[in-house]
Amino acid sequence: MAVKKIIFTLLVAVPALSLQEDSGFYVVSTNFVKFVEKYKVKSPLQVFAGKALVTLTASERDDLVNAVHENQSFCAGVTDVSDEYMKSENKENFLQEFSASQSPNFVSDNYEIKHETQVRSLIDLVDSAKYEEFIRKYIAFPDRYSNSETGKQASEYLKVYSQNLAKTHGRNDVDVQEVSAGKNYLQKTIYARIPGTDPSLPGVLIGGHMDTLRNNKPGADDDASGATVVAELYRAVLESGMKFKRDIYFTYYAAEEVGLVGSNVMAKQFKASDVKLRGVLQFDMVGYNAEEPLPMHFVEDNVSDELTKFTKDLAVRYLGLKTREMGTTLCNYECSDHASWNRQGYPSAFPFESSFDNMNHKIHTAKDTMDTVNVEHAMRFVKLGAAWIAEMGEAQ
Ligand SMILES: [Zn+2]
After folding, report:
1. How does pLDDT run across 269-292, given as a tens digit for each residue?
2. Nearest-CA neighbor of 28 among 64, 60, 57?
């Protein structure tokens, strides 16, 4: 106990001096702390409302994420808050402030279904063969770990894909950008922005994460399946030649598995530059079909209720699902990139492949191959994304 107290005091007083080079500050669910033996001697700096603030080296963080997966099989598991914590002027209440930021007050947007013709024509253009072609190429990277050479190559692959497709369609106006995920990561977040006709309006953004954990994890379902939804929608939108009133962002996040790092940096940058978005749609794991009576689920925490309801309305109208065919599920922690946007006050929604209980238990193992991905199931999410883009982006 005494030893723990000393560590606690040292870390709070002089965190920079007592941390190893690759150490960072992370928020984890207190439910996860028990998964790592090391925590028995390394007490959290703070505990509040089911969350713990801890310091971890990169390898401890990876151990924790792996342990969470072995026990609970869900994406991510930690939130990297190193930057926020170091800058905080109220460190002793860090977790209280962090928790408060998870419940922003959204201004109502009056989302409305009114672009049926454009939605139907975009849905006609999405293509399961193209989806399958893309995902098979993308998972050929043996490892997309965010601080590995192949993880960096995956990011460059997505950048070149985005640039080349714009060029093929003669779209000089499409803006492809990379966003650094910080000095600890070789991999960068990539996004393509298709400019809207009215730049004064808030844009819309869809995204999935490009990375996997360290070492030979094909990550077909988690999350090549979601990144491929983004890639296929980008392709279909360019092929359609459709104009939108609002900017549309097609985003591949770096370094999600290690603490939502890429999306956190991007969301903070957007907020700091006053980039307005009326909604963010997250695709993380859309390929595994648990053959449940409910074919689609929606994550209910760290999202906007209003945008989630609207996204369900789109599934009813354009996918022919009944409201009662859509389940709801709670992560109970920041389980994917939508949470980064949510904390910066951007409304998000997160449709998911299955219920929490029946999710794909092969993720984060070498068995997360194409055998876990049902392309027809994934195409439900592509079609939902097409409807979402055309309605939210106000297709012309
Ligand atoms: Zn994931």
Report:
1. 999 999 999 999 999 999 999 888
2. 64
